[in-house]
C-alpha cells in the first residue's frame, strides 16, 4: 500500500479490517498447523508484517545476546508511562542498551485510526477496534525483533494484555476470543502489572479524557487482568503502584535487571502459543 495517499491508505485499512472482522467472527475456528486461528487474520498479519515463525513455538534463534522484552501493564493512570521512561533512563545510564515503545503506536496509519477512536473523534464497531489494536502490535513486530537481536532491551508501555483486558471487559466478548489475534506475538520476558485501585487512579490527573476512562469500566478491566495473570506461561510480577514514584521505580528496576540477565541466552518465545494450543 506504499503508493497510496494517506487518506486512501486509511480507507484501505478500514476496508481490510472490516473484511477481517467478518472472517474472524464467522470462521475463527479453522485449524492451521497446530493452532486454531482465523486464516484470514493470519494471512493479513504475515502479509502486512512479513513475519514467519518456526513450528516449535519460538522465533528463530538469535545470534549473540539478545535484549529483553519487558512490558508494563495496568489500569489507566497507574503510572506506566512514567515508570517506562524512568526504567529506560536507568538502564541506559548503567550502560545497558534500552528503548521505550508504546501501544497503541499512534504514529502509523492504523494507529491514527485508533487514536481518533480513543479520543472520541470517531466510532468503530467493537470487533473491528479489537483487530485494529492487534494489527497495530503486529505491524511493529519486525522492528521489535530487529532491536532485540541487536541486544537492545525494549520497555513496552502496554501490550496484548491490555488489548484483551479492555475488549473482554465489554459485554459479549470471551477472553479466549480476544486472545486469538495476538497468538504468536513476541512473548515478553517480564510483564509487570502496576496494581492500583481504579478509584485511586480516577483521582490522578487527566483521568476521563479518553474513551474507557471511567471507574466502573476500569474495575472490570482490572478483573480481566487478574484472569490473565493466572496464566503461568507468562512471567507476571505485581507491583504496588500506590507507593511513591521512586519506590515503584526501585521495584521495577530490580525485576527488570533479573529478567535481562536471564533473557540474554534464551530464544524469544511466542505469546499464548501454548495457552490456546488445541
TrEMBL record:
<protein>
    <recommendedName>
        <fullName>Thymidylate kinase</fullName>
        <ecNumber>2.7.4.9</ecNumber>
    </recommendedName>
</protein>
<comment type="pathway">
    <text>Pyrimidine metabolism; dTTP biosynthesis.</text>
</comment>
<dbReference type="GO" id="GO:0004798">
    <property type="term" value="F:dTMP kinase activity"/>
</dbReference>
<comment type="similarity">
    <text>Belongs to the thymidylate kinase family.</text>
</comment>
<keyword id="KW-0808">Transferase</keyword>
<keyword id="KW-0067">ATP-binding</keyword>
<dbReference type="InterPro" id="IPR027417">
    <property type="entry name" value="P-loop_NTPase"/>
</dbReference>
<dbReference type="GO" id="GO:0005634">
    <property type="term" value="C:nucleus"/>
</dbReference>
<dbReference type="GO" id="GO:0005829">
    <property type="term" value="C:cytosol"/>
</dbReference>
<dbReference type="GO" id="GO:0004550">
    <property type="term" value="F:nucleoside diphosphate kinase activity"/>
</dbReference>
<comment type="function">
    <text>Catalyzes the phosphorylation of thymidine monophosphate (dTMP) to thymidine diphosphate (dTDP), the immediate precursor for the DNA building block dTTP, with ATP as the preferred phosphoryl donor in the presence of Mg(2+).</text>
</comment>
<dbReference type="GO" id="GO:0006235">
    <property type="term" value="P:dTTP biosynthetic process"/>
</dbReference>
<keyword id="KW-0418">Kinase</keyword>
<dbReference type="GO" id="GO:0006233">
    <property type="term" value="P:dTDP biosynthetic process"/>
</dbReference>
<dbReference type="Pfam" id="PF02223">
    <property type="entry name" value="Thymidylate_kin"/>
</dbReference>
<dbReference type="GO" id="GO:0005739">
    <property type="term" value="C:mitochondrion"/>
</dbReference>
<dbReference type="InterPro" id="IPR018095">
    <property type="entry name" value="Thymidylate_kin_CS"/>
</dbReference>
<dbReference type="InterPro" id="IPR039430">
    <property type="entry name" value="Thymidylate_kin-like_dom"/>
</dbReference>
<dbReference type="GO" id="GO:0005524">
    <property type="term" value="F:ATP binding"/>
</dbReference>
<keyword id="KW-0545">Nucleotide biosynthesis</keyword>
<feature type="domain" description="Thymidylate kinase-like">
    <location>
        <begin position="72"/>
        <end position="252"/>
    </location>
</feature>
<dbReference type="InterPro" id="IPR018094">
    <property type="entry name" value="Thymidylate_kinase"/>
</dbReference>
<dbReference type="GO" id="GO:0006227">
    <property type="term" value="P:dUDP biosynthetic process"/>
</dbReference>
<keyword id="KW-0547">Nucleotide-binding</keyword>
